[in-house]
Amino acid sequence: MEFVTYEVNDRVGIITINREKALNALNSQVLDELSEAFDSVDLNEIRCLILTGAGEKSFVAGADIGEMSSLSKAEGEAFGKKGNDLFRKIETFPIPVIAAVNGFALGGGCEISMSCDIRICSDNAVFGQPEVGLGITPGFGGTQRLARLVSPGMAKQLIYTARNIKADEAYRIGLVNKVVSAEELMPEAQKMAAGIAANAPIAVRNCKKAINDGLQVDMDKAIVIEEKLFGDCFETEDQKAAMANFLEKDKEKKLKVVPFKNC
Length: 263
Ligand code: CAA
What we know:
alpha/beta; 2-enoyl-CoA Hydratase, Chain A, domain 1; Lyase 2-enoyl-coa Hydratase, Chain  A, domain 2; 2 domains; four-stranded mixed sheet; 10 strands; about 45% helix; about 15% strand; globular; binds acetoacetyl-coenzyme A
């Protein structure tokens, strides 16, 4: 792959968008390669992913404006679908995905970060949906996920005004989970990912699914989704071992870390 790298560190995978000359802007090739990278993750071994951008300046500066500039209506819709299909793949990926936002997260950059489960950013990060200034709407899920993640009123304000916000404001409105210095960004993301990876994998996956699926339906249906996924955890090796450890007051015994396929 030309613009995406994938590395594995213990049970954590790191996917890096590496098109630094264009501030990691998302053209069709980057979107295809990202999709390929997610497809290549070995879900039997990897417990958590980190998504980041190459360089110190930009996470992702949006969809590629050069590529979009000459699209027809039908091509524009197809480009939106390409991005949306990938971002939905990330959002519904079986294991958690942490966005380590190392600078500009504009347009498609803000949108791809919102398709991740958790966002940690460096203090030089800038978020925004500048699309209306370019004569388009946010097209990779921004109108939908920003409204759900912050609030409809705040999402409308940010999208209609096309105003960029700095890391501290993104934190204040709940768009990011944590702000750290640029040097601390990857260590912090890796620490959080390792903490997630140390927990029972079926339980973590089921939590992601319960939260995601439950948010799409009313509470009566949502609690049924939870009950099913809660029930699914029983009889797993991790559930049996972890609860036995507690009952035996054996604090030394760590949660068994078994490959997912053997759980
Ligand atoms: N698409 C294509 N190329 C981009 C890009 C983008 N979104 N963002 C930056 N680049 C390119 C620039 O064209 C430039 O390339 P050259 O060196 O070949 O000229 C290079 O990256 C460096 O960018 P700048 O010289 O502009 O760097 P800067 O520090 O002066 O400014 C910036 C940085 C404020 C992020 C500015 O690049 C910028 O405003 N970028 C566009 C941000 C934007 O509007 N994003 C939304 C895109 S629309 C979208 O994403 C739609 C959607 O929802 C699907």
